[in-house]
Design a protein that fits this description.
This protein is an alpha/beta fold. It has a single domain, classed as 3-Layer(aba) Sandwich (Rossmann fold), CATH 3.40.50.620. It is 42% helix and 12% strand. The longest helix has 19 residues. 30% of the residues are buried.
Length: 264
């Protein structure tokens, strides 16, 4: 194995370019292959497709971009990726991250742009919360996809997100429901795909701790006070009792999202 290159931003971390050059640790290769397994299991991406990648700037979306980019080198098929980051004008990212994010996606050979939008448009309820924020972000991504002809939006949700969503729906809404690996909208005109739906969050944390991904620190004032953040310790505790607790929740939903996608 080649000598690992260190980060120009943090000397304690390895440069992510090691992964791009194929000089990756076995667990990183396993992570990328597991993402590919999820894609194949649920028939998420096909040859020649254009994928809109929702980018938050957090570890999850940056890890997904890395996996989807590297995976293209290993396949006999190809697909194109275009990253979109919605930057809330009300709580903007630090300007120093713009060039770092641009460089990261250039290195991954992914088109990328940052779109500035108001976080609190007048059409939304006064009682603003994380759910409304996520819905607003998704609405903007849907509008972009529609205008530009994208049929699929890839999001960085992982297995812990699925478990937390299940718990929120069960305990606070009285529903046994969760997020799906592939979700149809507008009678098949648009699909949301979640290639990392079988990946543990700990893997993504390890990736961000080992490599110099340009992870943006949360700028949301609700980041540490929302319900999802309060459920994370509960999920960890359950996993100490049974290491497959997360997988049990996923299997309990009996997910089968191999839906027949429109090809028109």
């Amino acid at each position: 194995m080649k000598e690992a290159r260190t980060s120009e931003y943090d000397s304690s971390k390895l440069s992510y370019t090691n992964i791009i050059e194929g000089n990756m640790m076995p667990w990183v290769m396993r992570f990328i292959k597991d993402v590919g397994k999820g894609i194949n299991d649920f028939d998420m991406i096909r040859d020649g497709e254009d994928i809109l990648l929702g980018v938050s700037g957090g570890k999850d979306s940056l890890a997904l971009a890395m996996a989807l980019s590297i995976r293209r080198k290993w396949l006999p098929i190809t697909y194109r990726l275009h990253g979109i980051m919605i930057n809330w004008i009300d709580h903007p990212i630090d300007e120093s991250y713009r060039p770092r994010l641009k460089k990261y996606f250039e290195d991954l050979d992914i088109d990328f742009e940052i779109i500035d939008e108001p976080q609190f448009p007048t059409t939304l309820p006064e009682d603003y919360n994380c759910y409304i924020c996520a819905r607003n972000r998704r609405r903007i991504l849907f509008e972009i996809a529609n205008k530009r002809g994208f049929r699929q939006i890839a999001l960085g949700h992982h297995l812990d997100d699925l478990v937390e969503t299940s718990m929120m729906n069960l305990f606070f809404r009285g529903e046994f429901a969760t997020m799906n690996p592939i979700q149809e909208f507008f009678e098949g005109d648009l699909y949301v795909i979640r290639p990392m739906i079988e990946i543990h969050e700990n893997t993504l944390i390890r990736l961000a701790q080992t490599y110099d991904l340009p992870v943006i620190k949360p700028v949301c004032p609700y980041d540490q006070t929302n319900i999802r953040s309060k459920l994370k310790p509960l999920v960890r505790e359950l996993s100490h009792m049974d290491r497959f607790a997360r997988e049990h929740v996923m299997h309990a939903h009996n997910l089968d999202c191999r839906i027949k996608r429109n090809t028109d």
